[in-house]
Amino acid sequence: MAMTSDRLWRKTRSRQNQRCYGVDPNRNFDIDFGVSGVTSNPCGDTYPGRNPFSEPETANIRNKINEIKSRVKAYLSFHSYSQMLLTPFGHTSTRANDHGEMMRVGRNSMNALRKVHGKVFRVGPAPDLLCNVIFIIIGFDAASGSSADWAKVKAGIKYTFTYELRPAAAGRRTSGFILNRSEIKPSAEEVMASLISIAKDIIV
């Protein structure tokens, strides 16, 4: 169904009831689960599931990270769209204790990204940035259960960022989730520059 009738399917494929399939995997992690930025409707795109890690996809990520977390320097989650680099936290308006360091590394990486093709990405916590861009439409200012917040709080990975890639906004005739073919390679090039910047900043 998802492959033939909904090209932009974003959920997992587990059966929830007779009509609805899947949960939003980026709301299925065990961090303030089901509190904000979610829907209780199993058919909704932001349905978090019945309980944390109910999905094999998220459970596998959890298990692997817990296995290797002592060696992990950073956790990066890639999404679209809005041209942002989101710092912790997404589930609360409270900022991380090391917010200043997150912003330093994030701004450096986005400066490196901008130098490649001139694209400007905003940097900051999700509630600060997204409440004015996406979630204001549906009344959300935070989203709980994200993988990046879980990685920082529960797995203890210091540097966690969420990319919201090109474009900055949806076009008149196209969804922001469908990137123009001509932008795919430039997007990869600029992101690679940002990744190199992050690596240089955090690996000492």
TrEMBL record:
What is the top-level taxon of the source organism?
A: Eukaryota
* Family from the record: Belongs to the peptidase M14 family.
* Pfam families linked to this entry: Peptidase_M14
Q: Where is the active site?
A: E164
Listed cofactors:
Zn(2+)
User: Would you tell me the protein name for this molecule?
Assistant: Peptidase M14 domain-containing protein
Query: Domain Peptidase M14, which positions?
Result: 1-202
